């Protein structure tokens, strides 16, 4: 069997939805972790079903030789009124992940987001773009949070994300331009890049030197086309099944894997599908994704395909 040169893990969102709570609602954390162990995976992100007691979490992960790689952290830095409160919460998050042995922090601005911004009201239908002042405030907040992470030996990795104010390739570019490259890194997500209108390979090449963490997510083009025609919001797209794991959608991961091999990427890459496990069983789809990614690796002399 061929081995990927970078570290492969999986996000528990394949088993239990984070944004769509009914997906996998009855699935236990034991099942998720057991499945990951059976798949030969060694890394996981934090999931909403996982134990919140740090010692219990450590024990459950250790039993299965799993590393907690990261945990999502929403921030609201575009509004300076929240800065102090947000930085205090961020430092607490940093300390938790440090104790768990993590090195990267999945970080996403929720200001302007239709679904995640706590200031939004019901019946709104659009993401609100950031204005000049918002961008300045966001960059300052991220740099400050990145400095906190760095003090504890971790990296803030910014997760460009569908349904937020940093979604399109232009918005990713602007975020990278405005933030300190020594404090703010990029979480490159193939599926969210494509969903936001980018060519994932171009994002990978353009910002490779800032990338410290990767999510490998596929997209079903027919579902995306239908959702766009209906002007569906992000959460509706998840319910429709717009995302899946690599090899079971329509993105070509061959050039992406080749680029990562050529660049010598050796960090974590997480399998992420964010779909209903009742329709798309998480273990089965993760196994397909692993086999697909391995099939893209070059065959060495004397090695069977």
From TrEMBL:
UniProt xrefs under Pfam families: AP_endonuc_2
Segments forming domain Xylose isomerase-like TIM barrel: 36-290
Regions that span the bilayer: none
Protein's UniProt name: Inosose dehydratase
